[in-house]
Fold AMP-dependent synthetase/ligase domain-containing protein.
Amino acid sequence: MGPSTDALAHPFIMTSTECLQVNMASEDQEIIFSGRQTDSRRYDQPLWPFLRSRMETFGSRVALFMTRMSVEVPIINYPQVDPYTEQQISYKDLIPLAEKLARALMKLGLTQGKPLCIVSRNSVEFALLIVATHSLGAFVHTPNPLSVPGELRRQLGLSEARLVVTTPEFIGNVEEAAKGLNVDVILVGPRDGHLNFEDLVTLASDDVILPPPPVDPKTAIASLLFSSGTTGLPKGVEITQRNIVAWIHQFQDYDGSVLTVDDTTLLFLQLFHAFGQVLILSASLASGCRVVIQTKFEIDEFLSLVSKYKVSKQRTTSDPRVSATYATP
């Protein structure tokens, strides 16, 4: 029986609430929270309608760029910036593209409440697939791409993923990890016998209708991430749709000018980590700012991108050594 929108019942899968309880558990310690009061009822909404309505307001007034990797996908417009190949686009192009990719994924068997596994470094395709998965009401499972085949296989088993997207850099490990499993592989890059990312565009058709959003965003999983395994084997942590909506609201409540349509930010922290995936990508898209994607963190390139693209605001950790750890798989 596959995962549902309810919590995955497994000792190695934890909800984000359980993780918070574990981190705070102490009988002799008093935890005091302070801060401005907020109406948390607005958090109780499905992620995609919330994110979609935000992006619709930015329209064509936000000048962005697209990327082309080694393959040409001429009908795709990206609301991100690639450091190497640029093309100006608008936010409004992301919405139909994400939903088109979602319909293609549905044709391949991905359904609401099921996982799409992505094994990759940062890329525009990675970001697009995250948004497309949200639009379908499915969830993303994003292992560290440097996971050894044994650990990757274990995570595939726990998440029960049946679709894996990867790149030529990691295809060997993915194929070894998926031996004997009922897993289909989609490759972002040159064709080598696997279904290609380009094929998703041709697979999509208007006769496939996206399902309505999940009824309960409190239990609908948006992302399944795994811990580093500091205290044992890596443990899966469920991030719900409500979690992400709440985090976006909380960022904007803290300071409404943190990110605006006039800003450019750099996505250098990896998308397989919650910081890169939620706190930078999702929050940035909800704010309408321009996102520059760095595939792999290197300090010289990082500084060059900040200068070249006039990065105006940047989310990172207080310790650059921690940021470098999160950013470099």
About this structure: The CA atoms of residues 217 and 241 lie 5 Å apart. The chain has a mean pLDDT of 80. The chain has one domain: 47-71+82-326.
